[in-house]
Amino acid sequence: MIRSLAPSKRGKRPLLSDISNNLTLSPIVSSVHQVKKICCNVKNVEIPEYKAVILSANDIQATQEVISEHEQRMKKILNKPFKIPIPGYQLSGRALGIRLSGPRRPLHDPDEANALIVYSPSELSEHEKLKIDLSKQLVHVVVDPLLCNILRPHQREGVKIYV
Fold first, then answer.
1. What are phi and psi of 46, to 5 degrees?
2. Is the pLDDT of residue 141 over 90?
3. Residues 6+ apart with CB under 8 A from 55
4. E-strand spans in the chain?
5. Which residues fall within 8 angstroms of residue 59, CB to CB, at 6 or more apart?
6. Contact, 47 vs 1, CB < 8 A?
7. Are residues 44 and 84 in contact, defined by beta-carbon separation less than 8 angstroms?
8. At CA 121, angle to CA 94 and CA 119, rounded to 5?
9. Residues 30, 32, 37, 40: what is their CA dihedral angle, to the nearest 10 degrees?
């Protein structure tokens, strides 16, 4: 078989949406392609150029109805709001990306057991605390405690180095 006539090179079947409903069935017409092999013996090989896809109009219409029913079910499911499948589960109430009003403070408690502190600001005297602007005050940078409880010692060191 010639590589250019292989099914992988010729393309795939047309999509159902590309086939019109007004399809008329016609007998399979196969054209004969002759290939000559270049070697000692020359043989004529008959290879059909393509295989016709035979679908009746009823089959096409039925499959399109199934597809449209499926799409309608998917739209109905996706339009519903997400509900957590665990019964009785309560969210923490903390939303991501919302900045709290007031002075700066660390996201997690640096004094908590197993806390991984990436940055610790220098201690300020009482006079400096009064003078400093609250919006520019430096605070502790603490890795999430849930992550810290899982990390092994060498991983904790790696987090400190890379951050």
1. -95, 120
2. yes
3. 19, 23
4. 32-36, 44-48, 117-119, 141-142
5. none
6. yes
7. no
8. 65
9. 120
Q: Residue 158 has which token pair? A: 């790696």
Q: Is the pLDDT of residue 156 over 50?
A: yes
Which H/E stretch holds residue 69?
helix 57-78
Q: Which amino acid, one-letter code, is at 100? A: L
Q: What is the pLDDT of residue 34?
A: 47
Give the position of tokens 């660390």: 106
Place of tokens 């092999």: 37
pTM of the model: 0.40
pLDDT at residue 17 in the model: 54
Tokens 């020359």 correspond to what residue?
Answer: 42
Residue type, 150: I
With 0-12 / 13-18 / 19 or more C-beta atoms within 10 angstroms meaning exposed / middle / buried, residue 142 is buried
